[in-house]
Amino acid sequence: STVWISSNPIALSVQTQPAGTSLTPLFVSASGGSVVTLAGTNLSSMKIALSASMSNQTASDKYEVQLSCKNRVFCTFVAPARPGIESIEFLTIFFTIAMNAVESGLKLNYLPRIEVDLMSPISGSRIGAYGVTISGRYFDGAYSFKCLFSPSSDDDTMNNNTSVVVHSSSAVVLNPTSILCDVPPAGMFGYLQATHVFVSIERFDGERSNKLRFTYNDHLLLNSLTPSTVFEMGGSLLTIRGNFGEGDPFYCLFRTFNGSLVRTKAELFSRDRLECICPA
């Protein structure tokens, strides 16, 4: 006959399985540091895994972060950095208990960090109301951007000092590597003399690019335009008189009825006269 021998008992802790319902925000920057709110049921201050693979067990690209919970419904965590990504990527979230992992059904989307390299032109009149083209990377037309102009190059000063004027304007994405910004008047920053501002691009998720320096001057002042009326088909030769100083190239910037900007190459004949072709 079989003889059964019993060991001493060992306690096994049984925990109600957590579940996730939503993430806020859904998109974060690859530079990391965003505070993400996870909503769900049966949550606790446990560790979660963010994996680039659908399988938490086999993923080599995996991050572990700690949940901070005030109750069993809402928790927060800090999104880890994902350096080097060049397109939108997502990480699947797993709840982890000891060696076990349960998929939450939630995915955190990562957007590449935007960068700017060049700006054209790099200087212009203090009167503003003209465009500058900024070249860089990761300007996805599916997302909204805005241009930030500030007299300070320091982000902390921009964010915390209420006496520093930061001008924000909508940006027009031309293609994935260039974006168009409207330059505000220098007087908006309280300056009476030629000075400079720092320009950066901000994406809808709060991600900001590095900064480029733009200089205000008095060189580009317009006095007259001939002819002042043209046909809508375009092609008319325009003669513009003013004070243009020196430099090359020059462009004529036209604002259409729908608010978009069109740029054509201008030919400088003297310090006070240039010509360009009116677009259709």
Automatic annotation (TrEMBL):
SUPFAM superfamilies: E set domains. InterPro entries: Ig-like_fold, Ig_E-set, Plexin. GO terms for molecular function: semaphorin receptor activity. Gene3D superfamilies: Immunoglobulins (2.60.40.10). CDD domains: IPT. PANTHER family: PLEXIN (PTHR22625), PLEXIN A, ISOFORM A (PTHR22625:SF70). This is IPT/TIG domain-containing protein. It comes from Leptocylindrus danicus.
